[in-house]
Amino acid sequence: MGAAVAVCVAAAALLMALHAGPWIALPAAGLLGFAAAAALALHAAEQTAQDAEHEQARLVHERDRLANTLDCLAEGILVLDPAAKVWYANTAACTALYIDRKTLLGQTVAAAPAAAPLRTNVTAALERGEPGSVDLPLPDGRTGRASVFPFSAGGPAGGALIVILDVTAERESTEVRRQFFASAEETLRVPAQNIKGFADLLASDMPLGGNKQQEISKRMLREAANLNQLIGKLIVLSRMENGDLSFSRVPLDLADVVNSCCDNAAQRAQHLGVSLSCTLTPCPLVASLWEMNELTADLLDNALRYNRAGGRVAVSLTIENSAPCLRVANTGDPIPPDQARRIFERFYRIGRGKSPGSAGLGLAIVKHIAGNYGATVTVTPQPDGNTFTVRFPHQGV
What we know:
The chain contains eleven helices and twelve strands. It has helices at about 1-15, 30-70, 90-95, 100-105, 120-130, 170-205, 210-240, 255-270, 290-305, 335-340, 360-370, and strands spanning about 75-80, 85-90, 130-135, 145-150, 160-165, 250-255, 275-280, 285, 310-320, 325-330, 375-380, 385-390. A five-stranded antiparallel sheet has the order 2-1-5-4-3. The protein has a five-stranded mixed sheet with strand order 7-9-10-12-11. The protein is elongated.
């Protein structure tokens, strides 16, 4: 627009000069040609100014769209200039660093006290062009991994990019695997060693008086049964997770399944000194008999395994919101809230009285079976124990 004004001023001055002196005799054709050229120049200047405004508006729009996109990311993003000042920060980054955007922009990353672990990596990136990463505590006790990338490598960088990832699930998964292998080694080794010890004893020349040989043989059978059950659960869970195991579904009454599982668990409950009660309402369901048996038996096994002497297990099956709802409550140590969300993870065992023969697979199988039916399974700690609830969706039979 400034160019157009300059052309206008120059044209006006020239036209004023044409009114004096010898210019008065300028041929009409020359004057018209000049006027046309001035008009074209003015039009070109105005068009150039409009194009510049449109391009600026387009760039602003693209910038805002990119900023909005980065703001939607779960990963924290920060862009630093060569002086380590924050040129851009998305919402996730500000949340991770416990600081608002207005306070952070234009300041060095040191303006956020929570970014203290990053300072060494930022210096290395900006001064020497060296990338790096470091763990960063996130809100709610989560764990983050902050990586710093220089915009140029091997020397002073023209700025840096910081990416903050939430690696809590990854770290927990690694810990779960570590615990599983440690637990599996312990759980599988004990019965295997017992069987070997009993077999060595039977194969030795040591005289066994009375009925000791029969007693040893029975103990070997129990240990072998425990080992076989554990290996079987490992295989079943692995096949279920890989989608290699499927079951046909038929109309059944879930109350009959639960009642049968309670009958099977009654002797064990009596042996443990735990009272077992069942309150059942007929619940028609289209399901696999094996899966419903496994789901109920695993919940009962968990309720009995983690109980106290003289305690109780209460099983109830009702219709809620036109759908079956199974509850298994026991008396024992309430599950801590920080572990309640992990109790259904495969191979995870709470450190409360780890029981021989358990590798933390039962509840993982329960969760997987429930998911196959669109059901939800939750645990609710009570003052004197825990209640596991499986809510099935409504389905016609």
